[in-house]
Amino acid sequence: MSDFYICELNDVVGHAQQFKDTHYIDLPDGRVLVSANFHSENFMERWAAQPHVEKVAHDDEAASAHCAEALKHLGVKTDHTKTEVRKLVRKVHRLFGN
């Protein structure tokens, strides 16, 4: 299952070789919400360690207030888990989070 991150589109393009597959949607603040599967655990760890890459939520944890604010136009709230975020985002991008 994919993990979700908020970052700049340049980050996604610059690290494209690390992704097995990825989808993204543009956010109102100019960043993107990324759904990513990685070629390896090492690639995932390197990606997540970038200071400007923010993971939306871990599997059963709620989205942070900062992430929920960036995704509020999609209906995301701070108590939404990754599964709930996926359902909301799929309303605008049906392949997101595969």
Task: Report on the architecture of this protein.
29% of the residues lie in helices and 22% in strands. The N and C termini lie close together (6 Å). Strands 2-3-1-4 form a four-stranded antiparallel β-sheet. The chain contains four helices and four strands, in the order βαββαβαα. The protein is globular, with a radius of gyration of 12 Å. It has one domain: Alpha-Beta Plaits (2-Layer Sandwich). The protein is α+β, with helices and mostly antiparallel strands and 98 residues long.
Short description:
The chain has helices at residues 9-14, 41-48, 65-70, 82-89; strands at residues 3-7, 19-26, 32-38, 54-55. It is of the alpha+beta class.
How are the SSEs ordered, and which strands pair?
Elements: E1 3-7, H1 9-14, E2 19-26, E3 32-38, H2 41-48, E4 54-55, H3 65-70, H4 82-89
Antiparallel strand pairs: 1-3, 1-4, 2-3
